[in-house]
UniProtKB/TrEMBL annotation, chain A:
InterPro entries: F-box_dom (IPR001810), F-box_Sdz-33 (IPR012885). Pfam families: F-box (PF00646), FBA_2 (PF07735). It comes from Caenorhabditis nigoni. This is F-box domain-containing protein. Residues 2-54 form the F-box domain.
TrEMBL record, chain B:
InterPro entries: SKP1 (IPR016897), SKP1-like (IPR001232), SKP1-like_dim_sf (IPR036296), SKP1/BTB/POZ_sf (IPR011333), Skp1_comp_dimer (IPR016072), Skp1_comp_POZ (IPR016073). Residues 165-177 have a biased composition (Basic and acidic residues). Belongs to the SKP1 family. Residues 1-25, 160-188 are annotated as: Disordered. The gene is Cnig_chr_III.g8742. GO terms for biological process: protein ubiquitination; ubiquitin-dependent protein catabolic process. This is Skp1-related protein. Residues 38-96 form the SKP1 component POZ domain. Pathway: Protein modification; protein ubiquitination. It comes from Caenorhabditis nigoni.
Amino acid sequence: MPFPILSTPHVVLSEIISLLEPNEIVTASFCSENLRRLLKSHFHQRKPSKWRLYMVDYDSNRHVEIFKPIRNSTTVMMAKNISELAGTAHRPNELRFSPEFPVIYSEDRLLGAKMIVDYVTDLFKLDVYGLCIDINGIWAIDWINNRQEKMLGSIALSKNSNYNWYGDEIMDYALRNARASDWFYITDNVFDNFRYNGKLGPADHLVINPSNHWVTIGNLMNFDFINISVSGSRISFSDLTSFLRQWRVGGSHRLAYLSLEFELDTIFENFDEDLEIVETTEVRKYRVEAEGDDSDYEIQGGYSIQRMDGVKATINCDLRLFLMVVWHA
Amino acid sequence: MSSTEQGTSSAAPAEPTTAPESAAAPEVPESFYYVHGKDKVVHKVSAGALQHSALIHGMISNLGYTEEQAKANPFPFENIDGDILQMVVDWCNQHKGKPTPPEDTNLPKQKEKLFDLVLAVNYLEIKELLTYCCKQVAMMVKGKSPEEIREIWMIPTDAEDEAAEKEAKKRAGKEAAGETAAAAGDAK
């Protein structure tokens, strides 16, 4: 039985729209220009500020996802290569509809990706919050930086097993130009001798895995993050003491949590006396704050170290792990 | 409380049909009010059930009617069909004094009545029922293509919108011309 939605009062129409999932709204927007204008106007007046819009350009998969609070993400629109469409005669940038979301088929990979991002950001009046890319999506860093004033919230440079490595130049370019306010995820493939001498951050979280062999102590001192979690580290004990020495005099001042998982067993000898590190049996709880996913942990004993300004930290270490929790006031 | 009787005349208001839920009578006797729709059939509804409607709740909160006064002054909702008002009254009775669940299985099932029900519920300002109804409307288009959505929600195509706009402009033009001619005639 049809329901004449456009004949309902404004308040009812708004309620119905607010109950639709993002992918349903995008599909509905293709019903008519009038409905698209109406939906657009709805979201321009009531900006869904809690929604997070992600652009994904990974492998042959290019799509836009929206995260709603306490929900999984929903793919709202996708771009595919026209070669994936059966038959021979197709219009350029042909639009098809799957039961879940609209798909644009285009000859130009980048154009298709840009079209879906432009369409969805315009409809919901949202900026792109997150970017998830592999080596082929590096172009999107500059494109997004140029198309919106608001800085990305999250950036993920993801490993793609179809490609052996990023290549030094590409990785260097990505690290230098990637800007995000909240999250950096780097799950990269780089050459064994790759080194990076630039800055990274400021942002809240940095996660590098599974291989962090390229991160030197110099990088660690230059990373500006609240929480840092890296695995596959080759940083030595003596380098870590340099890091702690610099931390005591105000380096990495925003750091609240540092977790280094080592590639090989690392022997922690006695810390230098000037670091004034003392053993502790204290058991303390700490929280790693990640938006929507705060977690509480416990650190038991270890070492206590104090910054010149009085801020203390607890260090736990074993053969493969160095954990440092800073007790900011 | 259960549903009211249907088809009774305004002279004989329908009474609630079920017995009280417990033997222990409430300390303060429950007050009742009376409403009727387009069909003039009067429904007797408790103040507790009517609390769901912000509109009616606002109307009765300061009246202080006696039972006789309430019976003599049923609230007229001439813009609501009788069967729709019956559905609304039933729902209010079923949910009287209960927290409203996130999913409501007691919703009226007749889809052909959904549009009228939505309008009535919106008018009567019954927020929870409106949300349930709107959820049903939203569910209609799950997994559907734009063409299917157009049919389900009766959305005109761009061409139809354009034609309607042209027609409206033409009509407005004619009306304006008519008014000008009439004004000129008056001036003579």
